[in-house]
Design goal:
Length: 282
């Protein structure tokens, strides 16, 4: 079996080099700049990696991928990327399967596109083997219809922020949009090695609309991570900021934010509108 595996793997290596793994490759500890791949349960990686980087200096920092991974586009996105840039130090290379690549690409390419990048050439799924048993396959539980059915954040222009709104203006936003939530948005001062944006504490519904109670916090977080330049405009680093966020469903089912109201303590109109809303006639 190991021989067969080795033969198949050799046949699959894009360059077609029939090399002896021991002689032509080496194992090195996964360095700190590859932090994203460090907590996958192995500590050593093989060089050259499956993208052909021969030295650690040549390997792009895995931090480059953090915004994509943090956006939570696919549960196996990290396994997929790390199998390529920091392959486990076994006596053979285990490539991601074509099917895993397609699954990750289909859910992550839209996120990359929203961040202004095309799906990288180096990750072209046609490069990867179709034999499920000789490669890293997709894990079926990750694409259950349940997780697929969850609403996804929309890639959109940055919503408008209205400081110190009038009562009228908040009530109008509540009437015109499908949902409204009260949420605390937090931006870390030094996001290195950590997700830059979080939604702190519980999200409160003013108007629930299409939002799912158990997924809203995660949805808002994914929304922030989808367009970091927009999120950075909306949230200052440091203390979490309370917002009333309104938005609606798009025809494709994704959820877009529309008008945002910073909810300051001194600002009575938002609290008033949120209370009045239940009995308000739009
Ligand atoms: C992301 O946000 C920036 C800043 O507001 C905006 O200019 C850009 O259009 C947004 N990206 C997309 C894809 O909408």
């Amino acid at each position: 079996m190991p021989l067969l595996l080795a033969l198949v793997t050799l046949a699959l290596l894009a360059c077609g080099l029939a090399f002896d793994l021991g002689q032509w490759t080496r194992c090195v500890p996964i360095p700190p700049q590859m932090g994203v791949c460090r907590d996958l349960g192995y500590t050593e990686m093989r060089l050259p990696n499956l993208l052909g980087h021969g030295s650690l200096e040549a390997v792009p920092s895995s931090e480059d991928w953090r915004p994509l991974l943090d956006a939570g586009c696919h549960a196996q996105a990290r396994d997929f990327l790390c199998a390529l840039i920091a392959p486990m130090c076994l006596d053979t290379f285990v490539q991601p399967c074509h099917s895993l690549c397609v699954a990750v690409r289909d859910s992550c390419a839209p996120v990359l596109a929203c961040q202004g990048h095309a799906w990288p050439e180096a990750l072209d799924c046609d490069r990867f083997p179709a034999q499920e048993e000789m490669c890293l396959p997709p894990v079926p539980k990750y694409d259950s219809p349940f997780s697929k059915g969850l609403p996804q954040p929309a890639c959109q222009h940055c919503p408008t922020v209205e400081e110190l709104p009038s009562l009228r203006s908040v009530l109008d936003a509540l009437c015109l949009n499908d949902f409204a939530v009260k949420a605390k948005l937090h931006r870390r001062r030094s996001p290195w090695k950590e997700t830059e944006f979080e939604v702190e504490g519980r999200v409160e519904f003013v108007r629930q609309g299409p939002l799912l109670p158990y997924d809203t916090q995660s949805l808002l977080r994914r929304w922030l991570l989808l367009n970091l330049s927009c999120a950075r405009l909306l949230v200052r680093p440091g203390r979490a900021q309370l917002y009333l966020l309104t938005g609606g469903a798009r025809p494709d089912g994704s959820l877009a934010l529309a008008r945002l109201f910073p909810w300051h303590k001194r600002d009575a109109n938002i609290a008033h509108a949120a209370r009045k809303w239940k009995h308000h006639k739009c």
